[in-house]
Amino acid sequence: MRNALRACTRPEPWKRGPVLTALALLLGLLLLLHAKIPDYAGLGSLLDNVLPWLGVFIPVLLAAALWRRSLSAVTALLLPAVAWTTVFGGLLPDKSHPGGDLTAATHNVGTADPAPTARTLAASGADLLALEELTPQATPLYEKTLARMYPHHVIRGTVGLWSKFPLSATHPIDIMNYGPLAATKPAAANLPENRALHTTVTTPDGPLAVYVAHLGSVRPMPRKGFWTTSRNIGAAALTNAITADRSPRLLLLADLNGTWDDRAFTALRTHLHSTQQTSGTGFGFTWPAASPVARIDQILYRGLDANRSWTLPKTGSDHLPVAATLTW
């Protein structure tokens, strides 16, 4: 005991590992202040999306600090450890609870085989099923396979909603040409215009406003970093539409092409809640399906309570489907 106390009071352990100490402090600051880092060439947005994975560096730095017997580095690691736990620790426990009036699911189907994918999704028991990245070739097969379980459906461009309840007041949402950023889209990056819709679902408990959206992709561009313009335009357009919507109960089923921590959704976070954060277990990563590292597919809500949030079995898509049960 005396030897341990003597070792701690000596100056040498506090002077060892200055680089490790600096890295630990930098890691903590990145976790705490990531939103303040300028989004130069999309790198700030990229940092937002990989933020949970920064926690991997904590045990690595701790092992190095112990090997170097650096008390300063071990002490500095308290900052990122506390920061990571504060930001993400609440996601780890199981927050689900029994009950629920409505189950919703959403899936970017990509190139998945329509018939088996539709059967997998229908087996979830979802009352509402949103599909993104529909193609003219695949859409008729989804319509045919889902027709018996879902008597009502609407499609606008590459997104659609299948429902057990009647739908009305359906219209597309222009998420590709909104705000001043729209003029900065490179011509080579043009995407299908109809990538979002709004509809009203007449449930047994009353009307529910539902939005389905597929925001633009985030892509690496040669000598320009990460291109996020289309995604950011879509985020602003959705925020504008949802802010203007006075419906007391609202769902957004979407492939956001960004995690809920991304700065592109700062404004949207003031209006909606994530089912995964309020009623899920863990991070609920959805992409890429083979080995998910990020949750870019979301079920977001207001005016309801979330009971449970989970991912569905893998299909042929590069995304995992997600589902949630909510209470009126």
Automatic annotation (TrEMBL):
<dbReference type="Pfam" id="PF03372">
    <property type="entry name" value="Exo_endo_phos"/>
</dbReference>
<dbReference type="GO" id="GO:0003824">
    <property type="term" value="F:catalytic activity"/>
</dbReference>
<feature type="transmembrane region" description="Helical">
    <location>
        <begin position="51"/>
        <end position="67"/>
    </location>
</feature>
<feature type="domain" description="Endonuclease/exonuclease/phosphatase">
    <location>
        <begin position="105"/>
        <end position="319"/>
    </location>
</feature>
<dbReference type="InterPro" id="IPR036691">
    <property type="entry name" value="Endo/exonu/phosph_ase_sf"/>
</dbReference>
<keyword id="KW-0472">Membrane</keyword>
<protein>
    <recommendedName>
        <fullName>Endonuclease/exonuclease/phosphatase domain-containing protein</fullName>
    </recommendedName>
</protein>
<keyword id="KW-0812">Transmembrane</keyword>
<feature type="transmembrane region" description="Helical">
    <location>
        <begin position="74"/>
        <end position="92"/>
    </location>
</feature>
<keyword id="KW-1133">Transmembrane helix</keyword>
<dbReference type="InterPro" id="IPR005135">
    <property type="entry name" value="Endo/exonuclease/phosphatase"/>
</dbReference>
